[in-house]
Amino acid sequence: MRTCGHDTDVAIVGAGAAGLSLAHWLRSGSPTGRAASLTVTLIDAPVGPLRPAERTWCFWERPGGPFDALLTSSWQRLRVRGRAGAPLVGRPEPFRYKMLSSATFTSYVESFIDATPYVRRIEARVTQVRDSGDGAEVRAVTSGGAPMRVHARWAFDSRPRRPESARTALLQHFRGWFVRTERPSFDTSVADLMDFRTPQPPTGLSFGYVLPLSPHTALVEYTEFSGDVLSDEEYDRALRQYTEEVLGLRSYEVTRTEQGAIPMTDGRFPRRDGASVFRIGTAAGATRPSTGYTFAGIQRQTRAVAAALGAGTTPVPPAAYPPRALLMDAVLLRALDTGRVRGADFFTDLFRHVPAERLLRFLDADTRMWEDIAIGLRTPVGPMLRTLAELPLTSRRATPAAARGQRVGR
Question: InterPro entries under this entry (predicted)?
C-alpha cells in the first residue's frame, strides 16, 4: 500500500455538517494563535451513495448568529396545532427559528477554507480510522481505486454510527416537498413546528411541518416518530393527504423533495475511539434524542474542539447535552414507545403551558433545575414517573442498522 504524503495535524473524516463546521471553526474561530497554523486534511466521500443529498437544517438562536447571512429564511413566531386543529402560537423572543440549506452552508465553508492556507481536501472512501504510534492513521480508497493513508496528530470521524446498546431506539423519519402554489397560500410570519392533524399511530406520533418561504412557496413535511421508516409511496400518500385535505392546497407544484431519518435513542454514543481518534456530530451524540435537532449541538461541539486545539490541550469533543437532559429524554422516548403517553397530546400541552422562549431553552438543555421541574409538572406526571422508575430495570439491547437517508437534524 502506498503512503500518501499528506501528513497533517488534523484529519477530518466526512464533509457533512460536523466535518465542515470543525474545519470552519479551526480557520475562523482562531484567526491568530496556535489553531491558525495547524494543517488540516478534510477527507470527503466521492460523489455517490456515501455522500448525503442536499437537505435543510433548522435551529434557533438570537439574531446575529455566525451564519445569519446564509439563512434561507427565519421566523419570529412558531405554531403548534393539536389534533382538533386549534392553533397555539408562540413568540420565543429573543430567539428566532432559522432555516439553513446544506448546499449554501457547504459552498460557504468550502470557499472559506479553500481560500485559507494549511487546508487540504481529498475525495476518498475511508475504510479505517485508528491510532498509530505517533497519532492517528486514516486508511482510504480513492475514487480511482487506489489505497491511501493519511497520518495525523488528531483524527475526527463524523461518519454516522449506530449507538451502543439502547433501551429505546426510535427514528424521526420524514419526507418533505418544496411546493409552489398559484395563489398566495402561506403566512410567512409563522412556522408550523408540529401540526397533529394527521392520522396518529398507536404509539409514537406523526405530524405535519410547514416552513413558509414566500406566500407561494414552502417546505411541507410529513414526519413520524416510530421504529421503522415508510416506503416512498407511503410518504407521498401521507403528504398528499396532509397537503390537500388538511392544508387545503389544490393547485401546487412539487419542485424538490428531501427525505431522511434521525436517530431518537437513549443509546450511548462514545466520543473517543482512541488516544488520538475522536467522533464528532451525530456519531458523537450531537443529536438531541427527544427532538432530532442537531445543528446547534454540532456547533457547540466543534467550536469546543477548535478551542482545545488552539489551546494545545487534548481535543476531546464535549457532550452536547448534560446527563440530566439525556435522562429526561430517555424517559420520554420510552413513554412514547410503550404508548403510556399520547405523543400528539404531550407536545401540544407542553407548547400550550410553557412559554415559547423557555421551551426552546429546555429543548436545547439550557434551563435550570427549577425550570425543568416546572416543565415536568406540565407533563402526564403519573405515566412519566412510572417510566422513570422502571428505566433502571429495563435491559439495553443492540440497536438496528441506521435507516436510509439519515441526515443531520432539523
Answer: FAD/NAD-bd_sf
